[in-house]
Amino acid sequence: MSTGKKILKFLSSMQFAVILLTVLAAACCAASFISQGQTYEWYAGVYSERTAAIIMALHLDDAFHSWWFVMITLFLCLNLFFCNVVRLPQLVGRTKKANDPLHVIKGPVTCSKENVRDPELLIQKMHMPKARTVQTEDGKTILFSQKNTAGIWGAWVCHLGILLLIAGFGLGQMLKQEYTVYGVPGQTKQVGDTSYWITIDNFETRRNPNGTLDQYITELTMRDVSSTDGTGKSASVTVNGPASMYGYRVYQNSTGWAADMTITKSGEVLQEQPLCAGEFALVKDKPELVIYLNAVYPDLIAGANGMPATASEEPNNPGYLYSVYYMNEIIGMNILEKDDQITIDDYTVSFHDPQNYTLVQVKKDSFAWLAFVGGMLTLIGLLLAFYLQRSVIWAEKTDKGYTVYGFSPKAGVLFKEQFDEAAAEKE
């Protein structure tokens, strides 16, 4: 055997598949124990600097997008692909032989019954198709019935489905577009670097009687500014109820708190805008002065160790944790309550009207259809393999009637029981 054929045989072997699946399972387990997407400093603080260096070197901080995880997945796809390619001619040959009665009757027999007067009745009791007459090479006439030949293709179709499922999921993860948009009603924000913009028309949070969140509902309008049609598309998005717009899927993800900020200069309103917790604003006529809203506490209380906390999700006593930066240096940090204000030279900053903001995710996976097709083929393959068990019955004419033979390669015991039970019944 040539070197190329040996390599091909190994790449399509079950041994190679088991090795890949073992390595893949180990990689997934390792990644599940390590928090993904953190920084070197975070890993060094949680583990140690040496461990953090190993995590970053092996790309365990983003394992499922690392080069080695992609390589394992590609080799698994190659294994499935070559396995299907190598087995296809053999499977076609098996199918041709299975559909050839003259070949089948020379093969193995699972069960038999002699001196049968009405073989067609036995075939009917076995829920087999109507028998057809076949002439053998030596001039004998036999009755032949077969069903579920397609079951031969079960494993092959299942492997093809898994291949497409892995390929569709892998390509989707590597090439998908995913953006986050958040804000309060009335705001319009761009979807990443695309030509699409989302306007948040309304946002509602429904709560249970105990005050816990039950459902988020965002009403939004999405527009393509590069299109001459400026009408856009509107939809209502809920948790577990995404919307499809312009080829994207829009998901309701989470919520948080925001507040309206007002900046005055010498008593005149300079700017007004909503800020979500975690956002900052540059003072219009003094951009080196930055106001950062760290957190919003709708019902401010003193928590453990005197740290700020919220007693409820109702805006009974709002508090606003802020930071002020000047020339990238922090110059102040505190909490504003009620009508408190920040005074910086001629500027006055205040926060008011706390409200929930919505956070939606906008995703586009161009290969989701491939994963769907793969999933369907996998299911079809399993159905073919486990529910379409090939069964064959043929009858040969003798002096005392007919001798009936039966064969089922995968359901031999069950098929024999059914055959014996049908043959034992009176004709």
Account of the protein in words:
This protein is an alpha+beta fold and 427 residues long. The protein folds into three domains: 3-93; 105-148 and 389-424; 178-364, no CATH class. It has helices at residues 3-11, 14-33, 40-46, 49-57, 67-98, 101-104, 119-125, 154-175, 368-387, 412-424; strands at residues 111-116, 132-135, 141-147, 177-183, 188-190, 196-207, 213-224, 233-238, 243-245, 248-265, 268-276, 280-283, 286-297, 300-302, 308-310, 319-326, 329-337, 342-344, 347-364, 391-398, 401-407. The strands form five sheets. Strands 4, 9, 10, 11, 18 and 19 form a six-stranded antiparallel beta sheet that branches. Helix 2 (14-33) runs antiparallel to helix 5 and helix 3 (40-46) packs across helix 4 (49-57). The longest helix has 32 residues, at 67-98. The two termini are 57 Å apart. The model has no long low-confidence stretch (mean pLDDT 88).
What integer is the average pLDDT? 88
Per DSSP, the total helix count is 10
In total, the number of strands is 21
**Sheet with the most strands, sense and barrel status:** 6 strands, antiparallel
Total number of domains: 3
Strand-pairing-aware structural class? alpha+beta
Estimate percent helicity: 25-40%
